Amino acid sequence: xxxxxxxxxxxxxxxxxxxxxxxxxxxxxxxxxxxxxxxxxxxxxxxxxxxxxxxxxxxxxxxxxxxxxxxxxxxxxxxxxxxxxxxxxxxxxxxxxxxxxxxxxxxxxxxxxxxxxxxxxxxxxxxxxxxxxxxxxxxxxxxxxxxxxxxxxxxxxxxxxxxxxxxxxxxxxxxxxxxxxxxxxxxxxxxxxxxxxxxxxxxxxxxxxxxxxxxxxxxxxxxxxxxxxxxxxxxxxxxxxxxxxxxxxxxxxxxxxxxxxxxxxxxxxxxxxxxxxxxxxxxxxxxxxxxxxxxxxxxxxxxxxxxxxxxxxxxxxxxxxxxxxxxxxxxx
Length: 332
Prior knowledge:
Blueprint: E1 2-6, H1 21-25, H2 32-45, E2 53-57, H3 66-81, E3 87-92, H4 99-107, E4 110-118, H5 122-127, H6 134-146, E5 150-157, H7 164-177, E6 181-186, E7 189-190, H8 194-200, H9 209-225, E8 230-233, H10 239-242, E9 247-249, H11 256-276, E10 281-287, H12 289-296, H13 301-307, E11 312-318, E12 323-328
Parallel strand pairs: 1-2, 2-3, 3-4, 4-5, 5-6, 6-8, 10-11
Antiparallel strand pairs: 7-9, 10-12
Helix pairs in contact: 2-3, 3-4, 7-9, 9-11
InterPro entries: BchE-like, Elp3/MiaA/NifB-like_rSAM, Radical_SAM_C, rSAM, rSAM_horseshoe, rSAM_sf
Keywords: Iron, Iron-sulfur, Metal-binding, S-adenosyl-L-methionine
Protein name: Radical SAM protein
């Protein structure tokens, strides 16, 4: 279990085009005292478990003054000693990794560093006002790996100026760096961001949900094929993010990751149908129970997709492993 401790906006030298962390994570951070209060609250409901991991999220941890970084790390040590968690992770910017940061994080036993990569296309990074180039990502990942840290890349789809080619650029770069995992988030237009202003002026139109799912699936397939786990797709659907007026536009869905997995099953079975050729069939899909709803698709969307031609009837059955069989039928 990852226990989040939010340091919203702290350390960030400026706000990127899309960012309003106070809405995304529902917290505002006001210094070490605020972190103390968060920890007291967490300790009231988190069970002591050595498999737990404490995470500093919501800001750029290593861009904080070193003294504040050390104060925060020192603060959580008592909770580690008490058995609430064992490992530490944090999120930060690629251009905020230095030998001094690395030395401090190592001294306090930080295990994982999550880098806000978003994209490796230079033009896209400029549009997002990230304040760094792709080279920073390569250098930060290399330094962290050399120091023994696990690295997670946080990526985004539905970005301004994004194309299949820019996604390929990002995928090639990430697979070359081979982080220990990735998160993929769809870009949303959130109130209080520069992107919201562009949206209101008609200068940015987000992709629809279907196309965003397709692009996320492209990254997922490429990353997993390279042996890089995708540990999350989609934003956590908490109450603050879903409050009226918070999300102005964009492909938000509370089960975004499930939509991506359903789409990938649709593609996989589409290929088997194509191999089968023309004809009328009863198609029996056998899958373990835990996959049944994903294979069917939300509201049976995949079933409707496969039966749309009028020549296939679909039946999903429980079984130990995935299998698709086709049986000739006389369509009436």
